[in-house]
Amino acid sequence: MTNATSKPWTPGPEWKQVGDPRLFAPATQRNRDAILDVLRGALPRQGLILEIASGSGEHAIHFAQAMPHLVFQPSDPSPEALTSIKAWTESSGTINVQPPLLLDAMAGTWPLQTADAILCINMIHIAPWAATQGLIRHAGRLLPPGGPLILYGPFRRAGHSLEPSNAAFDASLRQRNPEWGLRDLGEVAALAAAAGFGAPEVIEMPANNLSVILRRL
Asked: Collapsing DSSP states into helix, strand and coil, what is residue 57?
């Protein structure tokens, strides 16, 4: 995510292989099946699933192959990520993945008008708070009643001590960019409530992460 004052996220060298346009996100192999289990119970039976900040595209391909009854729309603000998503889609032969959209969560307008569900994995802590604000504002406009906005990643929670690994991760993010860092779940829920969402359903995930399901009222 980018704006006039923040340094954008860029993939590290471990994401790349020489001569291959596909990016390889190190965490995807570890978390994709746990996230898929959540999605099976949270997504509608049919429709368009918009993924925000798709990164390498590996998650979108994995979920689309496991749920052929749904259409996945990946997106990202990074041209390098868009190239990777296209390459993954072509190499996998997956037919229910739409061409990726150039989309920045903070933008005033998004290049689509509706979605049946919105998925955002490991984005809001590696972007300015304005990206979370944009994500939730646009989700409130795009989603139908009952449509889910599904967030995945590490969070701060009132009444819960921050795990040592998450505390170290948060410190490293803020050192890289002071606009980044783990978001407080209560603040995210309050922002969502103001945009027309109900109370979050919170699911504990491996490696001190959470899945947060917010449904449009």
From this structure: coil
Place of tokens 């603000």: 77
Give a yes or no: residue 11 inside a domain: no
Residue range(s) defining the domain that contains residue 77 = 32-215
What residues form DSSP beta bridges with 75?
Answer: 101
- Find out whether 185 and 156 touch, Cβ atoms under 8 Å: yes
- For position 2, what pLDDT does the model report? 34
pLDDT of residue 188 exceeding 50, the answer is yes
For 127-173, the pLDDT digits (tens) are 999 999 999 999 999 999 999 999 999 999 999 999 999 999 999 99
22 belongs to a structural domain: no
Residue 166 covered by a domain: yes
Structure tokens at 72: 């996945």
Q: How far apart are CA 161 and CA 208, in angstroms?
A: 11
Q: Indicate yes or no: pTM above 0.85.
A: yes
211/5: higher pLDDT: 211
pLDDT at 8: 67
* Domain-embedded: residue 125: yes
Strands 117-121 vs 101-102: parallel, antiparallel or unpaired? unpaired
Per-residue tokens: 59: 């998650």
Number of domains in the chain: 1
Instruction: State the Cα–Cα distance between residues 119 and 20, nearest whole angstrom.
Output: 26
Q: How far apart are CA 49 and CA 79, in angstroms?
A: 21
